[in-house]
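Researcher: Structure prediction, please.
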Amino acid sequence: KKSEQELKDEEMELFTKYYMEWKGGRKRDNTSYTNIPRFYYRLPAEDEVLLQKLREESRAVFLQRKSRELLDNEELQNLWFLLDKHQTSPMIGEEAMINYENFLKVGEKAGPKCKQFFTAKIFAKLLHNDPYGRISIMQFFNYVMRKG
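Model: Predicted structure follows.
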């Protein structure tokens, strides 16, 4: 007859054996966990100076890249000039409007930074009950200023 300690040891041994088989078996069957990218990195501690400098530098480079994507004042003025030049009559009160054809023409002339704003999806988003199928130039320009 086995003692209580021997039974506990045997139970633990069996548990470990079955657990390792189960864990190992799942590992072999499902390899998708190796394809999941790491999404969390702990912040560097105060004594990890090199990691802190790397984090600061990478953040600065990211912000520089994002700021280069933004339209500067001259580009915004050029966009407004092009939109105004290609407006489609008739005006609704004081509001200048533009149709899709002219919208695409402005998109071609506006430059590469503006290209992302001249899509059918954005035009449709800003289209509101105009009988001629046009959007407000001012609404579009405000959209560009908010998103860009």
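Model: The chain has six helices and three strands.
Researcher: Thanks, that helps.
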